[in-house]
UniProtKB/TrEMBL annotation:
Signal sequence annotation: none
EC number: 1.1.1.184
Family annotation (PANTHER family): CARBONYL REDUCTASE (NADPH), CARBONYL REDUCTASE 1-RELATED
Similarity field: Belongs to the short-chain dehydrogenases/reductases (SDR) family.
Gene Ontology MF term list: carbonyl reductase (NADPH) activity
Protein name according to UniProt: carbonyl reductase (NADPH)
UniProt keyword terms in alphabetical order: NADP, Oxidoreductase
Superkingdom: Eukaryota
Xref: Pfam families: adh_short
Gene: LOC107223522
Annotated organism of origin: Neodiprion lecontei (Redheaded pine sawfly)
Amino acid sequence: MSRVAVVTGGNKGIGFAIAKGLCQKFDGVVYLTARDETRGLAAVEHLKKEGLKPKFHQLDVTDDSSVNTFKKYLSDTYGGLDVLVNNAAIAFKNDATDPFSIQASETVKVNYFSLVRVCEALFPLLKPHARVVNLSSSAGHLSRIPGAELKARFANPDLTQDELDQIMREFIEAAKTNSHQESGWANSAYSASKVAVSALSRIQQKQFDKDAREDLVVNAVHPGYVDTDMTSHKGTLTPQRGAQAPIYLALLPKNTDIKGKYIWHDNTIIDWVNDPLPTPY
Ligand SMILES: NC(=O)c1ccc[n+]([C@@H]2O[C@H](COP(=O)([O-])OP(=O)(O)OC[C@H]3O[C@@H](n4cnc5c(N)ncnc54)[C@H](OP(=O)(O)O)[C@@H]3O)[C@@H](O)[C@H]2O)c1
């Protein structure tokens, strides 16, 4: 049966470039997924005109029924999954007028809890040697957490997913009373969500290490500062360049040592707890 790769949020930006690169380099079927069918199909047509052969499936990461429909489709059609790139995310603009409490709950809902939803649904389908790539950010490095106590909770090597979920619920609660900074957070919902994605990747790798399936690998990646809608096209790297490290991680060879890590856009491994944040981003 065919090997299968899935990219979430594949209709534009870095996700589109990852889907394109995987069509060129991955030995199997590539699913470009999108929450909006029209935008997703248009992206697939675009790649087909370039001679590539992506497939499309609708996937809204915030929607249980959409995620479960896709899970069943993959299971029925292929019986498994080899590469999962969790790319879909949102970021409020700097000049957004939405109250911080709304920005916090929406951003953490999409970027963290919905990524968790996708993983919980699709991880049972992962085949031996599967590769999972979680799109974090330079904003997702632990040094982005100013509070020492909060930082220590994130850094705890024994942190569990339940505890991490709880930390993120606490962030949403603190944001409601605008007391998040007193609780040790920076004033950025996006950064909070991406620190959680990085922390989650470490926890997921520990779970994979205990899994009966051989050589399951997950890493978090900062793709660089990329020219996409998310950055209002201020990013300096092309989407193709931004896709470089995620594709590298999606295609890591069998029995790689690069697992449970936080990877910079030039493929270097950054110690998420102890290293300073590289510059420029
Ligand atoms: N650009 C950068 O400089 C940069 C830097 C660091 C990290 N990142 C990370 O890289 C990833 C891609 O960013 P980007 O710059 O390419 O962003 P983007 O251009 O805004 O694209 C985001 C993608 O996510 C999709 N998406 C949003 N909500 C979704 C949902 N509920 N279900 C499914 N898909 C959803 C969007 O779909 P719609 O078109 O339907 O909205 C779009 O396809 C993100 O995880 C981002 O945080 C980006």
